[in-house]
Amino acid sequence: MARNELRPVIRLRSTAGTGYTYVTRKNRRNDPDRMTLRKYDPVAGRHADFREER
């Protein structure tokens, strides 16, 4: 199955300033804006907001 641009690979960068990133896919039809998820940042040792970078 071919990978298309409807579900692109995105990088989520921590807003805590540690530079830690997660890599995931998103559905562009459901989430057209930049995605923000609250995930664990192991460098900071706590949960932080991770914002999509382009």
Chart the SSEs and their pairings.
Elements: E1 9-14, E2 21-25, E3 36-41, E4 46-53
How does this model look, in words?
The chain has 54 residues and is mainly beta. Helix content is 0%, strand content 46%. Strands 2-1-4-3 form a 4-stranded antiparallel beta sheet, with no helix packed on it. β3 and β4 form a beta hairpin. The model has no long low-confidence stretch (mean pLDDT 92).
Mean pLDDT: 92
Q: Determine the N-to-C terminus distance.
A: 25 Å
Number of strands: 4
In total, the number of domains comes to 1
Low-confidence stretches: none
Shape: elongated
Helix content: under 10%
Please give the CATH class.
Mainly Beta
Rounded to an integer in angstroms, the radius of gyration calculated over CA atoms is: 12 Å
Structural class label? mainly beta
Give the ordered list of helices and strands.
Answer: EEEE
- Give the strand order, joined by hyphens, for the main sheet: 2-1-4-3
CATH fold call: Rubrerythrin, domain 2
Strand content: over 45%
CATH superfamily caption: Ribosomal protein L33
Count of DSSP-assigned helices: 0
Main sheet summary: 4 strands, antiparallel
| CATH-scheme architecture | Single Sheet
Give a short overview.
The protein is mainly beta and 54 residues long.
